[in-house]
Fold these 2 entries.
Entry 1:
Amino acid sequence: MTSFTILALGGDGIGPEVVACGLKLSDAVASQAQIRLHIQEDLLHGAAWQAYGTFCRDETVRAAQAADAVLVGAVGGPQWDGIRVAGGPEMQDGLMRLRKALDTYAGLRPARAWPALTALTPYKSTLLTGADVMVLRELTGGAFFSEPRGHDLRAGKRYAFDTTAYDESEIARIAHVGFSLARSRRGTLVSADKANVMESGMLWRQIVSEVGRDYPDVTLLHLYADNVVYQLARRPADFDVILGDNLFGDILSDQAGAIAGSLGMLPSACLHGLPQGRERRPGIFEAVHGSAPDIAGKGIANPYGTLLSVALMFEYAFGQPLEARRIEAAVATALEGGWRTPDIGGHHSTVAVTDAVIAAYRVIG
Ligand code: IPM
Ligand code: MG
């Protein structure tokens, strides 16, 4: 029997609650798919800070590197926002450290319209028909990691600065992922940049075009990032894969949440590229939503983002795309059956929604 190791990191706020549900679904899928799962658990970000005085321990990084997949809940909370730690941006945030250590440069953030949730979106249903977008975000470079960065006093004023820098190989590798994803979907890649005003944007555009020569079957469109935000708001169904750097991808993936009815519905996979044959490096699977400290511990957090992240984990970490499609179908069934947490207009608990998805999965599988 094939076996895989999951490092489960609940993190902060509602994170541990949704990760527990993700593991429950993983167990159900694994037993159906004849897979053995080994689960390890650890603390991340604020929870790690409280226990160990660091946002992510070296032990946690090593366990992540040795695992097949890392399932993350959510990180952050106002009590940890102002803490400054030496050692660069990755030491400021547990998730950022893991992304850097695992070199998960490709952030896959799919968002689709769920017919059962159309009324929760700002869209007319006609605009959402067939909307199914994959935001591909560069995750380990750009504005969130480039040096120099810092804060000091200049001419007696508090001063802070960041840098957006990419070298051509960082752009090329994420572009390859974008074209490959587009090829496996509907064949269109929109690349978002600010080549009109940013040097890094000009290089981004040039390298994406160069990589595109290897994918003549994919239609490539360069758009300015501000225009992508506008067009995505106006006509979401026209987009297939949207490629953006770390900052633009962060913004665009939250915006894509509007298509799904709520940010709480969005899953993500952070990968060291797409798996090639049998070679796999550990990926991080996490819902895009935050830690929602205001509802932590109440049992009403929306688990769908995590359950859909489990689908991505079965697809990309365990090589089981069929199970991923079954999980997604089970989510659609549960939504149509009215299983909703309060944030998406229902009255069900996190656990009740999860159990409904598992029951639907068992029927489908
Ligand atoms: C996300 C989040 C993170 C990010 C934060 C928590 C560092 O917004 O995953 O989109 O900006 O990458
Ligand atoms: Mg974000």
Entry 2:
Amino acid sequence: MDKKITIGLLGAGVLVVSALIPVLAGGCSRADAADLALKSPNGQLVLNAGVDPQGRLFYTLADKGTAVIDTSYVSIQAKEGAVGQNCKVRKVSHSSKDETWEQPWGQEAKIRNNYNEMVVELAEEGKDLEKFAVVFRLFDDGLGFRYEIPKQNGLDSITIMDENTQFNIHEDATAWAQPWDHEYYEAYYLPSPVSKLDTVATPLTMKLTDSLYVSLHEANLIDYAEMNLTPEKGTTRLRSYLTPWSTGEKVFAALPLKTPWRTVTVAANPGALALSHVTLNLADPCAIEDTSWIEPGRYVGIWWGMHMEDYTWHSGDKHGATTENAKRYIDFAAANGYSGVLVEGWNEGWDGEWTMNGDKFSFTKAYPDFDLAEVNRYARQKGVRLIGHNETAGASRNYEAQMDSAFALYNRLGMNTVKTGYVNMMLDGKELHGSQYGVRHYRKVVETAARNKIMIVNHEGVMGTGWERTYPNFMAQENMRGQEYDAWSPDGGNLPEHTCTLPFTRALAGPMDFTPGTFNFNNKAHPGTHPQTTLAKQLALAVVIYSPVVMSSDMVENYEGRPELEFLKSCPTNWETTVIPEAAIGEYVTVARKERGGDNWFIGSITNSKSRDAKVKLDFLDKDATYTAKVFKDGFKADYRTNPYPVDIETMQVKAGDELALNLANGGGAAVMIVKNKPAGNPTAKN
Ligand code: NOJ
Ligand code: CA
């Protein structure tokens, strides 16, 4: 039935397009349609779709014969009519793709995009909105599907009131997710049975069995509303809930419409889940022709000082963003190989209740004690770039009115990165960040920045869905409880298990601006609050938590003379490849990464509140080489509660196949740099 015709070779891959399935074309019986099946390239994942006797469209998913998703219905309710509720299959077509594409930056240089696709075209005859299609793509690491609604019967736009996409999870699995309406996704991913979940944001990660992990999310969210999930009446049948406009509608869509992809990532273990490529593969390819100006890097910032209340964002005696202070940070950056310096509180608008007065922010006018041109000149002369900060307090219209000229100004001055912020639950006083209104705004910022050669680090945004593939100037997002909670959170700081959970939950949505690297845990303003880690774990987080731009969080004076700084300043932010030899969600994880364009490896291993003896087999090293490993690990009696600071620094020779024993303290970690030795007898050879 699935007759395939090879039509050509595309790069590394083969494009195979099948003939249409004639038996289904031109109106088939519903029973025939229920046979629609699709397999992943390795045959392990199997999707079945169909239309039930009531005319409802459904799908199921199995992994190596084990049910993952039971019968799940999908439909869209628009003002103009519904699709998916009383339909017939018109046509089915199959195709395949196998290509490899390169990322300008990432956890891996090359990504294989290998899938089998099935397009099911459906009709609900006699209605205004009668035609639509569902496109299913099955990869070895998961499923993506989306809805396509063409122009029809004089309709060139529709108003979507509801999307009912179901994920009927086979098990009442343990799920890690957070409430959809928590501010800026800055909640914990707490484990809960699927059936007991609140309405949650995605990624929603689940452990179905010891060898079956699944994460639900979306990809390529553009000009649509974010998808949240909620279990139906205490069951394991999750249903989509689109973030609404303040007026209740979900999406105003022009036709033809292609919705974002709904994704189901499937893996045998947490490490494989964290390294899945479903989201990136489903995002649109790179839209920037010349990406040479996009540079991963490491930065410090006039930042922790405000969170610790040593400085203020606003003007006055304690103003952090002064010309003098910025130069001090630039000097530190230049001396220690940091590429950037973030400066917050440099611009007018911070005085008074700034979170309620976003319209007052100027993105071009500096406070009188901060000479924007001079600080940039000084930075450029020292080989460092200033990273501008644009806090909007959610006033997105005010930002849109200024951002073109602001980005052009920054570019002229030599700045190449802007950190954006939206501290207000509502955009422009009334729309949710995850609404179509919010999605449109955040996308416009990234596109405007790309035109002006500006990289974006976004805080308080909409959850990532792979935009960094299309716009690689979209570097990282916060959208999580980051290190700032270790400065002022009344609960004392991030729990030790939090960073052992993020790589398998939030990280599936893209790079995280967590900002690890706090060295001084004393906190005058909030004495009970500090990182709930050892110092060695702060170092390890620089490897474990992926971002192409990594800020070392602390005030620069806290790094002076500290031998542990060597690890932070040596650790790259762009990688050739990544392996995760061991992980248990919320408990521990070890990540090993090989630097892009080099031979050296970096390892981060962390644990939750329990101590742990990690054993890392170095089978990823080159077989014919030797390496010098420098290990930064928890020292004598280190403990995150009572004795966080001791770090032992040890150097040793290692080779492929050796086992590295890393003893992690309670709440501890270890960070390792593994540098390839030059071949003996040829000391000048490039390593
Ligand atoms: C919250 C952000 O997450 C933080 O990084 C920033 O310093 C403050 N808002 C002020 O904009
Ligand atoms: Ca934040």
